[in-house]
Amino acid sequence: MPKPTIIIENVTKTFGDVVAVDDLSLEIDSGQFITLLGPSGCGKTTLLRCISGLEEPDNGEIVIADKIVFSRKKGISLPPGQRDLGLVFQNYALWPHMTVYKNITFALEIQKMSKEDMDQRVKESLAQVQMDGYEERYPREMSGGQQQRIALARMLAYRPSVFLLDEPLSNLDARLRIDMRTELKRLHHDSKATTVYVTHDQLEAMTMSTKIAVMKLGVVQQFDTPNQVYHYPSKLFVADFIGNPKINLLEGRVSGKDLVQVGKFHVPVNTKDASGEVVLGIRPEDIEISLEPVEHGEEFIAYSVLPSGADTTIIARQGEFELSVKEIGVSSIEMDQKIWLCFRKDTINLYDKQTENLINAG
Amino acid sequence: MSTYSLAEAQDSLWLARLRRFFRWLTTPYVFLSLIMVVVMFYLVIIPLWSMFVTTITVSELDLRVIPEASLGDMTSYHWRRMLIGQIAKIMTYEPLVNSLVISLGATFLALIMGGGMAWLVVRTDIPGKEIIHMLATVPYIMPSWTISLAWKVIFKSTSVSGGVPGLLQFFTGIAPPIWLSNGALPIIIACGLHYYTFYFLFVSAALLSIDSSLEEAGDLAGASRGRILRKITFPLVLPAIASGFIMTFSKTMGTFGGPNVLGVPVGYYTLSTMLRSNMGIGNYGDGFVTAIVLILFSMTTVMINQKLIGTRRSYETIGGRGFMAQKMKLRGWRPVFIVLIVIVQFSIAILPLAVLIYSTFMLRSGNYSLSNFTLHHWIGQSDLSINQGDPGILLNKAIYRAAWNSIRLSLWASFIGGVIGVILGYAIVKGRGTRLSKIVEQLAFIPYLIPGIAFGAVYISMFTKSFFGLPPLYGTFALLVVVSVAKHIPHSSRTGVSSMMQVGSELEEAAAISGANAWQRFKRIIFPLTSPGFVSAFLLNFITTMRELSLIILLVTPATAVLSSMTMRYIENGNEQQANAVIIVLIVLVLIGNAIISRFRGGSLKKGLESSK
What we know:
Chain A is an alpha+beta fold. Chain A has two domains: 4-241, Rossmann fold (3-Layer(aba) Sandwich); 248-360, CATH 2.40.50.140. Chain A has helices at 44-52, 100-110, 115-128, 144-157, 174-191, 202-208, 226-231, 236-241, and strands at residues 4-15, 18-29, 33-37, 59-64, 67-71, 76-77, 85-88, 162-166, 194-199, 211-216, 219-224, 248-256, 259-262, 265-268, 277-282, 287-290, 298-307, 311-318, 321-328, 338-343, 349-352, 358-360. The mean pLDDT of chain A is 90. By secondary structure, chain B is mainly alpha-helical. Chain B contains 27 helices and no strands. Chain B has helices at residues 3-26, 28-55, 77-83, 88-123, 129-136, 138-141, 146-155, 167-172, 178-181, 184-209, 212-220, 225-253, 257-262, 271-280, 284-309, 334-360, 376-379, 397-430, 435-449, 452-463, 477-487, 489-501, 505-513, 518-546, 563-573, 576-599, 605-611. Classes of the chains: A alpha+beta, B mainly alpha. At the A-B interface, strand 6, strand 7 and helix 2 of A face helix 1, helix 23 and helix 24 of B.
């Protein structure tokens, strides 16, 4: 087990009456790529700014690489420049009055690096982001995607041991975003720097992270690998937030041993000791479709069929009751056609309706 | 837990608090804000207080009239004398009424002309918009009493006792009546014509920023043109009109030049000229009462105005810069408006200067024929029978000294003002949302509420004696710099704030992450990015200070005289041509200064004007 590089302990940050980060603790291991994921206003950016030192928490303690960078109790708060970290801003924050070269060497000059070393670093870091030869450009002379790369190069050049990235891809168009995801993951793989990445885009989180911290209202709801977060969301909020198309959340009540009544039918679930009101979480791709009546199959109508090339989403209805189902490839099902749906016991997650916590993972 | 470790824990708690406090204190914006609070206290709050104290303290001069009192006693003598005594009517109430009449009149006139012209230029198909725009900014480079001087040249009249004929009387033989040559009406017209520039700039900027879709939406809803104008357009430009009102009103309340040129000769006093005459005879107690009355009235009006219209409620962010789909067609009215605008702009921007220049070539006042033509007032050798023996102004050492003083004063004041503006802008913007930032912002606004001449008066009381470690500054050049900087702090800080707002906070944060300390961040990031704003503020301050009179008239001495105060001295000595020649020199210097400074970094007067509102 590598020891944690960043330790966040009971950190709270309020703005007036708004609690942005609420008594939050988190340990981030060395060399990991951690994503803070959540809807806007969940406190993810505030947490990142607290780590960076741009924001001073109201309470708690933050340790980076064995160095206490913030402690309310001890009255310590190191300025951002002394925390050995780099930050890429959402809107890049390149200095408009400086060339790319000057932007990159700004931090190096402060460290009083020699001219030759600086030239070397600029060359290296521009090569890392595939922007060789752009030294003399001004930020306004480059496209958004290029500015983004320069912002990355500016951080890479002074080799901080922690990378912080605040929604770095959100201002890019969809196509570029996918390219940059690849680059970022590669960059992390090569540099091995501990990375904290803020985003509201679950796809970015899923594809790049070693671990995801899903946040809501200043509290971490689940901190786990992408796989765990997707397949075994520990809370209804997480289950609902992750996944596209959305997970099916079915309200029901335990009607017998390993059986939950949902609407007019029963679903086989591993109920453990649960009783009373529950919620079932079923991913659309975990539902099997049959075109003919089958045993344990429930009859539905294909209300809408939405092909997207690689897969097809079918919105199935039974009276008021609606489910999304995902089929790989192009579906032969037509709208208003009768279909039969089967649930697989081992893919269904069971949640307590009151506490919204996971009772039993399928 | 032992008592020892308890005590230790207590200790470290205190240490933590101390560290946190120290960190708060050394946060750049906090540190700068606190310095600014101290500076504002020195420059504004304490002088105001010390002025008030003077009015209730027995002075040496008072000992003769209050026999039983001794020096330094508290007394209500001055307040009673000025507010309820026998002379209260002449000393306070009549000037007060006159000041209000003039200020409201001039403001109203400026509103009609500036607002109307803005509407014509922005919203109709009137031709020659560029020229109209350019000519509209001309008053800004002229001292505010230029038009008054020109008025005097044209409408002077033998109806006034001891008067000589002006141009009008000379050529027509009709002596203009006193109400036309001197007093309320001429002052209102002269001030209104001068200050309409503010309205024009503010309202046209506001009209430009209205998205025309807002009006089109009204159009689609079936509203008539008049209704759209009343219900949509007018409310949207109301904040601009309010800003123009505050500016014009408080400037006219505190203006000294116009009333001194056109009012005093016929005994028509305003609070500003009354204040000057009391201070002139050394009666500070009485003078300060007048100053306080002036300040209170000007403040109250501004505040009522803000309450009623709510200038703080700004619409400017809504809509953005709209695309004007269609300009209103004036059709048959077009020639009428063209003629009107030509007449108005001619009589504001061209006629006064032409008349003034013409008058400087007239040897004797009151005779405008070619036989009286001379260059004496410009390049003549000393002749005891003319101008008390002063040589022509281009040979006059006193003029060169005054010109140098004007330039030196303006450079110093605008440089220091610009620096303070940037610092205030930084402190206010970075601290936005904190109580400290609000306090700084409000303190910086106070000089705006104090009319120019009263602001000058405030400084007499404070700097006649040494005070809080500062040497007695009265009579020094430094005092003129201090008062000019202090009076223009509201403008400087507004410019500072608006240019700081354009620098995203993450640019400084990125530098902080890179390890730059506060000074490095300021030097390498903040200052380079805000310098166009700094240049604009500098330019605006330079021009304002060059032609400033009301503010410094009470503070200049012969050694520190500037060009603007020289014109007043000559007018008061009856040397009209000399005064007019000096004002021409002043305007030329302002133009040169403007041309030089706007070369730098693309700062411009118009930008400065717009961002300072």
